[in-house]
Amino acid sequence: AQQVRSTIENSLPQLPSGGSVRGILLSGGGANLPGIRDIFGEVFSGIPVQIGNPLTNLTVESSAHVPSISPQDASHFVTALGLALRPSDAY
Question: How far is Cα 79 from Cα 56, in angstroms, rounded to an integer?
Fold first, then answer.
């Protein structure tokens, strides 16, 4: 969390005037670590912290072939889901 804080502080001067961090979205398997959301909430007081659900904006034509998976389990597949959503001609 301290490394993220340092990165944000170094990046803020590059944002347009008045730019700020409006929220923090934790993703990946590490987002499931017990207490991680509370730790980020303490380090970034006043900034909403959420655990991301990589399945939120996915739609499928038929749910018959989609296995049921919890958001906690889905978080382990964030990279694979992102790669699957890329256009087929993007390498």
Answer: 15
71 touches 53 (CB < 8 A): yes
Q: What is the 3-state secondary structure (H, E, C) of 32-63?
A: HCCCHHHHHHHHCCCCCEEECCCCCCCCCCCH
Strand 24-26 to strand 49-51: parallel, antiparallel, or no bridges (unpaired)?
A: parallel
Query: Is the whole model's pTM more than 0.70, yes or no?
Result: yes
Q: Which of 38, 34, 81, 39 is nearest to 60 (CA)?
A: 81
Q: Name the 3-class secondary structure at 30.
A: helix
- For residue range 31-79, what is the model confidence (pLDDT) as tens digits? 999 999 999 999 999 999 999 888 887 777 766 666 678 878 888 888 8
Residue 78, SS3 per DSSP: helix
Q: How many CA atoms lie within 13 A of 69 on its CB side?
A: 17
